[in-house]
Please model this.
Amino acid sequence: MLRSLSLRGAVARCVAGVGAGAASLAVALREEHPAQSATAPSSKLVHELTLKVSGEIDQDFRYWLNTYVKELLQLPGMQGAKVLTPAAAASKPGVVFVLGGPGAGKGTQCSLIVEKCGYTHLSAGDLLRAERSSGSAQGKMIDEYIKEGKIVPVEVTVKLLLDAIRASGGQRFLIDGFPRNTNNLSGWQQVAGEELAVGGVLFFDCPEDVMELRLLERGKTSGRTDDNIESIKKRFTTYKNETTPIIAYYEHQQLTHKIDGTRDIEVVWADTQAAVGKIEATFASLAATGPAACVQVYSTNEPATSASKLADKVSAAAAARFGEGKVSVSSRSLEVGASLKAFDLDALRAFD
Ligand code: UP5
Ligand code: MG
Model:
């Protein structure tokens, strides 16, 4: 038996303020079977189906898909599904995430991109530091997290980012130092994922010894409460444990542009500039793509149902309903090691 869920929780509460209505999202869950819940699945898969649809059936197709997706959940191993029907990509502002360890040079390269390419730079860390100093109720909590090198809960960070995005009215944003963990990624995907197109991730790669020297040097004058050796070590640990999986996730999505951040600023900049050029090409191709929907199906791999089998099933059903050639389906699978939180998801609690 199936039931529909609406988004819940603290993150979901932010949705109303972020241009809700431009896109829709539906979640379907397979009712948990008592025998299945006793043993946790050994591994989890996200099958992602991307559907391109002829313009004339677009509305009918979206309606049909939300109902049809429940049939996929009858296949072996299927646990839940999410249908994303994005607003036209052409109208979405574009986002580039900028990641890398503490002191890797994210802020330095972002300043150059702003100067030469006209992006709006939003440093999550700067926004949090400003919020900390604003005297707001959550200032003390943010202060603790930053000193301890821990990652502030996503509700706080996403709200600050989206407020800044809305206030700016720009079309291209560099989001510096975010998303830093699966909680950040999940929060972003739920609240902003449909409103903003992610064109790429700039990843500045730098070893700890280089970053440590830079941060200690900067700490002589920066006034940052986390530019001391104790906080720096904690920041490194958090980065290694929590942020590197996010970089790997985007690498898997073929969105990550890895840049050696150890070299001189100008040399790094040459690679940054080239990567921004490639990301602009991605934005252009996103804008050229017609209306599409995306279905994420969450599955255990025991027993396995392949993404291509799901794609074939959707393809055949769509052809029967709308005629041949109206809908094309491509598929891929992402294996998720530790947790499905990156993909939503307190609604899919059966996974964790
Ligand atoms: N420098 C830069 N590039 C150089 C180069 N190529 N050669 C030689 N020197 C170079 O650079 C650091 C220093 O190195 C500078 O002195 C620079 O001149 C020199 P910078 O460009 O500032 O590096 P950056 O990667 O931006 O380092 P930063 O310290 O800002 O990185 P963090 O990721 O640690 O800091 P951030 O401000 O993003 O986050 C701080 C804290 O906020 C986090 O630890 C966390 O507690 C919190 N936070 C969240 O909780 N959530 C978020 O989403 C974001 C932050
Ligand atoms: Mg920075």
The longest helix spans residues 229-252. Confidence is low (pLDDT under 50) at residues 1-25, 31-41, 338-352. The chain has two domains: 2-88+291-351, 90-288. Residues 106-107, 123, 125, 176-177 surround magnesium ion (ligand 2) (CB under 6 Å).
